[in-house]
Amino acid sequence: MTSVPAPPRRPVPREVTRALATSAPPRLLLVGGTGTGKSAVLASLRDDLGDVRIVDDAHRMTAAELQDLADHVRDAPTGIVVSTEPRPHRAEMRSLTAAFAGSGTVVELGRWTARETAGRAASFELRLAPPQVRALHRLTGGVPNLVDTALEALRTDGDVRHAVGEAIRRQLLADLDLTAVLALVDLGAALDPGELAAVLEVPAERALDLVDAARASGLLGADAASLTAGASGVPAAVLGRHNLFAVARRLLATRIDAGTLTPHLARGLATIGLTDPHLARRLVEFAVDATPREAADLLDAAVPAGADPDALAVRRAEVAFAAGDLEKAEQITDRLLDRADTTDVDDVRAATRISASIAAHRGMLDRSADLFEWLGPERVGTDAPLAATVLLAAGRPSAAEHLRGAAASGAPTSSASAARLLEEGLRESVGGDGRIAMNRLARALTSLGSDGSLRAWPDTVDAVAALLCLHSGELGHARAILGRPEMPTVRNRLLVAWTEMLGGDLAAAAAIAEAVASEVTGQRDLLFFHALQVGLARRNADLGALTMRWQAAQSVVAEYSVDLFGLLPLGELWLGAVRLGESARVAHLVAGARALLTTLGEPPLWGAALHWYGVQAAIAADRPSDLVPHARALALAAETTAYAAVLARAGHAWLGVLRGEVDATRIREAAETLASVGLPWDGAKLAGEAALRAADTTVATGLLQVARTIRQDGPGGRAPVDAAPDTPPNEPDDAPLRAREKPGALSEREAQVADLVVSGLTYREVGNHLYISAKTVEHHVARIRRRLGAGSRSELLSLLRAMGHGADVSRRTHSDRNGGKPACP
């Protein structure tokens, strides 16, 4: 069996050797906490110091003994080396330190940094990766002796955490009072000598010494308000349950009498299993002003501390939902609803509302509607407006009206007022006046204030209001609404990204999506996130990204239930599916959405956007007949909303384009009007597609210029850039491209060639469109490449995209004018 080599000796610190070399006789005081290696330094020096007096652990000496040491330092001709833990409260220790400072040297031995820990690992012939070093440093707090213990365990394939814990346990067994102090700190107590004297029932002087000992133990974190990772839980285990509970109860009584119990300490006391009615009551009180996540922890701790779980059930579910813990909220509400017959009606109502909110967050508004219908008019009470809102959004107008009429009178709180205004606003948006609808929703926002309500709602007022704005082309209004909250939700941030995408600022939308991606969890948010990614890829004409984004969206597509608030993401997924030839995957959802709108009486404010997607889907599939019903629906909606009128004119223009009737004036007006209502990408696409189908070169050139102008005048002043596949890694995406982006940098003919080349056409196909030879096209491309300084074809394409060329031109051959399916919608 191979023997394990002994741990390597630690070198004597340079400060120590320097102090000994520069003073004769040597007078040195080593000050350091437990485990910093003071005794090891003395042991290594003992043979070399001869007659020098050596004293270890001076902090254990009496006042008289310390005074004798101080006198020796000042008066004796012989050398002296002393080690001690810091004890700043002791006057005699301060006197000794002053004596060494005046007549010798004081060297402080502290904890190791992570870098020093890594160096020590190397001496053990261990090569640790940076994350391993950081983990080991957190576990040991950088205390040298504990670091060595951990490294030895690593070297011998032992359990590192257990080895460190055992070393700490042995350290604590020497002083159970100190162990009690550290256990109290672990619970959340402060190092207050007066409080410790009362709790531990020790004299004030002993309490002061215990505070100093705790600070010198090496087991406190940097803030001295918590224990290191390796020490946490060890003092309590050393004390044992009986002794721990005894000091914990005395601490609780002391804090309650003084009125100084904190939420952190109260939660810590409950965590160890302490039961006390006063503790339970204070935990519940602390939850009132806490953040949702903190409140959830406090209420969860209150139950084992002695609070009535039934009395707290609704409140716990409410804060769990607000904290984002939907599983816990659902568990609580399910238990309440399972015994609805014997549960107070107010609790049943609240549990239904919370459960409906959970379902809505998970993209199942139909289940939310089922829950409210189950609750019924007899029990819905003050939640009638929310119930009616959900039922209407789920396409159940009769049930919504039935429950709305059952509303019970209650206190006109801000939350109740906002719920009523939300329901009125949605009802007006579906079957009334859009101006009144927005007025009601704006008032609902004002009623709630900037922070909204902590009560669980199926959806927020700002999200519903912003969605109505997006459906109506009011992008500026949507931005203003979504910018109200000081701490916007993930849903709000996703809707901001949608606002930017619909407005043509794809770069801004992509940046927001990237920033929020890690926080998107609920199915409803995932639906909007994946549909946003599909929409961005489609608009960037990036087939590879579109395929990847579409595949990533399949799980949410499979679980999606159609509702009024999910029509925008459905529309984007519909177009992505058509582009990839997988429209069958969403056909049932599209049919469900159209049925929903029919059931609601074809509300123009909500239906126009979906019908516009239908127009684009017909265009992408090159099926003019599919466009007709959507164009008709838009024409009907145009009688009541200006936004629908714009879309209707654009749909009519598209129908003409698909039929080969390129009316340049009508197309230009439709494209520019689309841009004016916040749809520049759609306007540029219409003009670009019409240019590709125009038989007259002059008309085609003019329409290409219209498309380019709309892109350049859109958000950010340039078309979106798909930098991922083509931009060289050493080429920044933004500033250099902006420097090259100058209107007129290319000639008119070169601009036409650039548009078509970036769209993916071959030189021969470009030549067919522009009635020039493929060789001439090649010469144009060569001149463009030289002018822009592109080093490769991929860089050239990236630069041209950045300048606004080709983002909206579908790949078509000359023969496509007579039919055929476009490669990119």
Describe this structure in words.
It is a single chain. This protein has 825 residues and is mainly α. Among the domains are: 14-110, P-loop containing nucleotide triphosphate hydrolases (Rossmann fold, 3-Layer(aba) Sandwich); 117-303, no CATH class; 748-803, Arc Repressor Mutant, subunit A. Helices cover 66% and strands 2% of the residues. The chain has a four-stranded parallel sheet with strand order 2-3-1-4, with helices on both faces. Helix 3 links the parallel strand 2 (53-55) and strand 3 (80-84). Helix 35 (624-637) packs antiparallel against helix 36. The longest helix is centred in the N-terminal third of the chain and has 18 residues, at 241-258.
The largest sheet, given as strand count, sense and whether it forms a barrel, is: 4 strands, parallel
- How helical, in percent, are the residues? 55-70%
Q: Tell me what portion of residues adopts beta-strand conformation.
A: under 5%
Distance between the termini: 73 Å
InterPro entries: P-loop_NTPase, Sig_transdc_resp-reg_C-effctor, Tscrpt_reg_LuxR_C, WH-like_DNA-bd_sf
GO biological process, one term: regulation of DNA-templated transcription
Domain HTH luxR-type: 739-804
GO molecular function, one term: DNA binding
Could you list some keywords that capture this structure?
disordered C terminus; single chain; 2% strand; four-stranded parallel beta sheet; Arc Repressor Mutant, subunit A; 825 residues; Tscrpt_reg_LuxR_C; Rossmann fold; mainly alpha; transcription regulation; flat
